[in-house]
Recover the amino acids of this structure.
């Protein structure tokens, strides 16, 4: 077989390519983007198969990639949520599911916090140390359970600290404690304890805290409170906007969001928020006897446990305890602000009258 080399002149802006001819040493010729293919047989002369500049028939070594529409991910997640909603139980008929830009908040647990709060027309005294019950809500008829699921107890009227216990059983199990310290720069501290059903060595002794974390105000001009450095992540309680309250026809909605920081281009990071719980207070859900102007009154507490997998039994159980405990902290802060406003009004009236 005799092989002859046929080449075409390359443009001045072409890339280098490597060609050979036997028996001489290989010579480097600039023939790209020209592609020359020769076929020479004994019965067939050399034939030029193809020559093109714009496109080639040579397959690329690099795999092909397609750019995915970021909105398709949200559509797939929304479709998955809707298909699995039947497995998580029905929601309350009076409270529609809350839809955000990232996911649909669908509560898996519905609780009712029953506390009267503090009205405007009252003395600026600490509330009485009456236990605060937290009931389960039946998904069928929205009725309260016969026995409370949790009880929040304060030792005495002059103490701001409290602890959460299980509402059933002869010997209630301590699930959390909230300790308030006097003075600036000393935020309340929350300690969570495993329930007896999840303890591996329940010998009757005082159990160690499963987690301890502070509740810190985000700024002096905001009522939002952040839960930092918890074993379940970082969370923040905030008050809902007007449009969010409108969806529930409520005068007050507290929203608990889980915050995850992710890296973005340029070496920066941003916060991704997902709603974990809501405390809704409207005409149907607020504690009987309280009004829209009452501070620290109870309401409907809805929790979405889909943030954690079903196999994470401990995390899901402790997430409920965390939500209930910190929701009560938010209600106490409302009462404290109401008392401070009442003291300021009384002081202003006293100074003006003198």
């Amino acid at each position: 077989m005799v092989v002859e080399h046929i080449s075409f002149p390359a443009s001045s802006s072409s890339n280098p390519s490597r060609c050979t001819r036997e028996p001489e040493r290989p010579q480097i010729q600039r023939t790209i983007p020209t592609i020359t293919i020769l076929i020479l047989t004994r019965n067939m002369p050399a034939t030029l198969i193809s020559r093109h500049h714009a496109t080639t028939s040579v397959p690329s070594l690099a795999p092909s990639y397609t750019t995915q529409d970021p909105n398709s991910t949200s559509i797939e997640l929304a479709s998955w949520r809707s298909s699995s909603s039947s497995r998580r139980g029905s929601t309350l008929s009076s409270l529609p599911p809350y839809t955000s830009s990232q996911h649909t908040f669908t509560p898996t647990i519905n609780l009712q916090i029953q506390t009267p709060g503090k009205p405007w027309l009252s003395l600026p005294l600490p509330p009485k140390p009456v236990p605060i019950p937290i009931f389960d809500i039946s998904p069928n008829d929205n009725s309260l359970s016969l026995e409370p699921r949790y009880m929040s107890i304060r030792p005495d009227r002059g103490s701001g600290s409290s602890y959460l216990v299980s509402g059933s059983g002869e010997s209630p199990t301590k699930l959390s404690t909230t300790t308030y310290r006097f003075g600036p720069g000393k935020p309340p501290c929350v300690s969570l304890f495993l329930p007896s059903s999840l303890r591996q060595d329940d010998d009757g002794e005082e159990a160690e805290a499963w987690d301890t974390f502070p509740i810190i105000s985000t700024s002096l001009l905001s009522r939002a409170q952040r839960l930092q450095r918890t074993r379940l992540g970082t969370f923040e309680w905030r008050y809902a906007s007007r449009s969010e309250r409108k969806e529930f026809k409520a005068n007050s909605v507290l929203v608990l969001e889980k915050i995850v920081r992710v890296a973005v281009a340029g070496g920066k990071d941003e916060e991704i928020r997902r709603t974990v719980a809501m405390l809704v207070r409207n005409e149907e859900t607020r504690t009987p006897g309280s009004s829209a102007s009452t501070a620290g009154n109870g309401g409907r507490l809805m929790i979405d446990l889909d943030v954690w997998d079903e196999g994470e039994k401990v995390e899901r159980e402790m997430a409920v305890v965390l939500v209930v405990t910190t929701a009560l902290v938010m209600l106490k802060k409302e009462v404290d602000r109401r008392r401070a406003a009442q003291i300021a009004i009384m002081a202003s009236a006293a100074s003006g009258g003198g």
Remarks:
- Residues 1-24, 28-93 have pLDDT under 50 and may be disordered.
